[in-house]
Amino acid sequence: MPPFLKLLRIPNLLIIAASMFLMKYAILQVFVNASDLSFQLEPKFFFLLVLSVVFIAAGGYLINDYFDVDIDTANKPNEVIVGKEISSNTVITIYALFNFFGIVLAYFVAAKVGVTQLAFVHVITVGLLWFYSSEFKKMLLIGNLIVALLSAVVFFIPAMFEIPLLIKQFKKVVVENEELFLMYKQIPLAIEANFKFMWYWSSAFALFAFLISFCREIIKDCQDLEGDERYGATTLPAKFGLSVSNKFAVAILLVVISLLAVAQYNIFIAKDYYSFSYILVLFQLPLFFLVYKTYTAYTTNNYKFISKGLKLIMLVGLGYSVLFYYLMK
């Protein structure tokens, strides 16, 4: 793969794009169909919204590598690209262009929605990614929390840009039609409930992404401990050691397992055995295995394995959106 594409983490960008498409056309689609409404943000504008997020994320990867040259040289010298295969000035220029296009596209789509303030999500994200790479990444847990939070926000963006338009459509079709409103009093309440379910499911996926990303960031800090210590980064493993960090990561995984168990209980009561089996086999069992691997980890290879495992768990989470869509059709 060309050096520049390695910097962009193309697989990660594809996952971000897939997350947004699945949230809209799998999760949100179910509740839009149930409301007898239709998506108001045209596919071409939603594509531009996804592209805006991908641009911002790509810029985040670039600026992170720009500031991490010294640490990466210590941790993975053979993988350093900035300053060797691509100049630092080139990286900064492309970073600025990506952020510019990302913010402009976000503002354009937000204007179409009629809520231009939504574009500030992108502006704030750009600022957080800059300060994460330059300062927060080296601070105890702050950088980890920022990355986890931004991972969660991706799952909210489709609802944030679609629901305002759906509400306008809802008011026009039902609420403003007095005769229809009086004839079908329960329709507005049912549709409003579906809007709440859109936020509920967006929140559920966002919380899952937040916790898994938070855990993965701790694991990556354990993996990069040598370079972080050399350059004074106050990460959790640098300050408290690998043993404490392992237990902290295990605690996060146990929280995820507990939340999934609560969901499984409700799913079992609802007799949704497909979802119950999906969560048991593809979430719970692998998570228990990762708990064991994390608790006993102490080498770089151990942490690489756990990090890849957590990334796979994220993909499994995305896969559930497809199952949910077909179960609810």
Model description:
- With 329 residues, this protein is mostly helical.
- It has one domain.
- The chain contains 14 helices and no strands.
- The radius of gyration is 22 Å and the shape is globular.
- It starts with a helix and ends with a helix.
Question: Ranges with pLDDT <50 over ≥5 residues?
Answer: 183-187
Number of contiguous helices: 14
What's the helix-strand series? Answer: HHHHHHHHHHHHHH
Radius of gyration: 22 Å
Give the DSSP E fraction (strand runs of 2 or more residues): under 5%
- What structural category do the secondary elements indicate? mainly alpha
User: Would you report the number of β strands?
Assistant: 0
What's the average pLDDT? 90
List the helices and strands and how they pair.
Elements: H1 3-8, H2 10-34, H3 43-67, H4 69-75, H5 88-113, H6 120-134, H7 142-175, H8 178-183, H9 186-223, H10 225-230, H11 236-240, H12 242-269, H13 273-295, H14 300-328
Question: Which key phrases capture this entry?
Answer:
329 residues, mainly alpha, 14 helices
Offer a concise description of the structure.
The chain has helices at residues 3-8, 10-34, 43-67, 69-75, 88-113, 120-134, 142-175, 178-183, 186-223, 225-230, 236-240, 242-269, 273-295, 300-328.
